[in-house]
């Protein structure tokens, strides 16, 4: 599958008359192809994007099967363009090639004549406040858990699991993790709600889990582009200690962790499994 990664958003730049500039960045998923074009803010619309993408294709750039974007504002602009030119647009946070390029560009902006000097974080998004998960989805019990790296892929890749999300880029071997590295995670025994919860998670697109200390403590799921969900809250000291250990192990595993939903703890059937990773 040929994939483009795309971002179209304002930058800390302005033209000669002081008007803010937006920038379109397009690359393929391996970085062999890169395209950049600035746009006056007054022209930053879907029709401008349409012209740029059509020109790229007309000039002989291989037509992508899919365009991936990580910024909600960009998605709102590019989605109707994708429909017009017959290319699927996928909102996802997992576009590492583009994000690395954005960080490189951010280091270059201060050297440009139109740099405004404004604070700029190229990957920053306005995230939504966390929303409690509906009680109708929650299962019987949950717990922090850990799996050896050596067992992680073998345990789940060959099982008949209705929902299985193990991106190749997140496999421990591709991250360079030692086989002895413990991978932390969260296991939910969903009971009768297991499949319903797994289907909801599949639609929500899980990205990462965070233990948040507080009064009470909480387990937060980051999903989609900017969604945040409160999976549960608790005040138990032992669970809080397990949450702290969960975060410590995430640091040792380069942020890699997992979420497993199963009907019960018998280990016979699973409803859904996701490999997750803390964002860069």
From TrEMBL:
Pfam families: Tab2-like_C (PF20429), Tab2-like_N (PF06485)
GO molecular function, one term: RNA binding
Domain RNA-binding protein Tab2-like N-terminal, residue spans: 3-105
Domain RNA-binding protein Tab2/Atab2 C-terminal: 121-277
PANTHER family according to UniProt: PROTEIN TAB2 HOMOLOG, CHLOROPLASTIC (PTHR34556:SF2), PTHR34556
Record protein name field: DUF1092 domain-containing protein
Taxonomic source organism: Stenomitos frigidus ULC18
């Amino acid at each position: 599958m040929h994939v483009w990664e795309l971002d179209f958003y304002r930058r800390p730049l302005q033209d000669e008359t002081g008007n803010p500039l937006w920038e379109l960045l397009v690359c393929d998923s391996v970085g062999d192809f890169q395209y950049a074009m600035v746009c006056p803010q007054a022209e930053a619309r879907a029709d401008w994007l349409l012209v740029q993408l059509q020109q790229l294709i007309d000039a002989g750039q291989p037509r992508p099967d899919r365009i991936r974007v990580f910024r909600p504002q960009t998605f709102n602009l590019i989605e109707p363009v994708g429909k017009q030119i017959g290319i699927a647009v996928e909102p996802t946070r997992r576009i590492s090639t583009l994000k690395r390029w954005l960080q490189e560009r951010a280091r270059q902006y201060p050297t440009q004549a139109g740099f405004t000097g404004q604070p700029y974080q190229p990957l920053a998004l306005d995230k939504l406040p966390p929303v409690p998960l509906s009680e109708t989805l929650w299962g019987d019990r949950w717990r922090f858990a850990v799996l050896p790296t050596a067992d992680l892929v073998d345990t789940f890749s060959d099982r008949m699991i209705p929902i299985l999300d193990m991106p190749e880029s997140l496999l421990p071997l591709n991250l360079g993790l030692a086989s002895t590295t413990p991978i932390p995670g969260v296991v939910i025994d969903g009971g009768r709600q297991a499949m319903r919860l797994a289907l909801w998670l599949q639609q929500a697109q899980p990205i990462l889990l965070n233990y948040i200390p507080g009064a009470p403590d909480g387990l937060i799921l980051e999903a989609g582009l900017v969604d945040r969900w409160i999976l549960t809250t608790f005040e138990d000291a032992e669970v809080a200690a397990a949450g702290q250990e969960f975060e410590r192990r995430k640091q040792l595993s380069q942020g890699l962790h997992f979420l497993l939903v199963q009907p019960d703890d018998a280990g016979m059937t699973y409803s859904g499994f996701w490999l997750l990773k803390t964002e860069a």
